[in-house]
Amino acid sequence: MHWLVDPLQNAFMVRALLASALIGLTCSVVGVYVVLRNLAFIGDGLAHASFAGIVIAYILKINLYVGGLIFAIVTALGIGVVSRRSNVSFDTSIGVLFTAAFALGVLLMSRARTYTVDLQDFLFGNVLGVDALDIILVASLALAVLALIALLYKELLFASFDPVSAQASGLPTAVLDAILLVALAVTIIVSLQAAGIVLVAALLVTPAATAFQLTNRFGRMMAYAAAFGLMSSVVGLYASYYLDAASGSTIVLCATAFFFIAVAFSPKRRSLLTAVMEARRNALQAR
């Protein structure tokens, strides 16, 4: 067991483990709604859009998380407004706004003479570099998102599965959509330190997609997704430590491995295979 305990002798590993666990749990819970609503593209879009806010905050010498969070929330709400008031699809609105925001970030970064490696950590993630202040910020935002999801669990569930009936029953679906987008933006900002802008969408989508392979019941799917998110974060962090590799990549690859294992042993897949074998058996007997 020394391989499990030895890394925790380092203070940076304890902080990284705590941050990874919080990020894995939050991403997985929010990711269930992302997968059920087919919003996988928005995770990638908001992560890239936040880059402009991070660069602006870097230039103004204010907290990078705050800059990224403001820009991500403004972009998320803008996507909802553009999608409702124009004749373009939700994915098209995401594509237009996130590419514009990311291009603005690249432009500002190319003009910043003091550009250093700090911004690269947000592109590719470096959870091993979190400090005590980062932990407090990540924990605060993660708890706020999880509390919001718990408070609006039934309403978000109803609006996700049947938005037309939810609206007909008097639920403010537009407000619920905006709240979910804001929660998603906050979750993405929380996750940037672990996976970076390039890979953060995987933390949102993959654990939830893994859980979907194992159950169709929403409550179990959320619980399974949380478990897979936590395991991916912890196993990926240890792999990063022993392989001396980027933490974001090892965490995402662990989550991907769990997904393919779930696909291989999925009850849905077995049901399909059983149905195919039974059809073949019936066809042979009919000859």
Overview of this protein structure:
With 287 residues, the protein is mainly α. Helices cover 84% and strands 0% of the residues. It has helices spanning 2-5, 11-36, 40-60, 64-85, 90-111, 118-124, 132-151, 153-161, 163-168, 173-212, 218-243, 247-264, 267-286. Helix 4 packs antiparallel against helix 5. The N and C termini lie far apart (60 Å). The mean pLDDT is 82.
- Estimated radius of gyration: 21 Å
Uncertain stretches = none
Kindly, what is the distance between the CA atoms of the first and last residues, rounded to a whole number of angstroms?
60 Å
Query: What string, H for helix and E for strand, traces the elements in order?
Result: HHHHHHHHHHHHH
The fraction of residues assigned to DSSP E strands is under 5%
What's the main sheet like? none
| Helicity level | over 70%
Global outline? globular
What structural class should be given to the helix and strand makeup? mainly alpha
Assembly status = single chain
- Annotation, overall tally of beta strands: 0
What is the arithmetic mean of pLDDT?
Answer: 82
Tally of alpha and pi helices: 13
Spell out the blueprint of helices and strands.
Layout: H1 2-5, H2 11-36, H3 40-60, H4 64-85, H5 90-111, H6 118-124, H7 132-151, H8 153-161, H9 163-168, H10 173-212, H11 218-243, H12 247-264, H13 267-286
Helix pairs in contact: 2-7, 2-10, 2-11, 3-4, 3-5, 3-10, 4-5, 4-10, 6-10, 7-10, 10-11, 10-12, 11-12
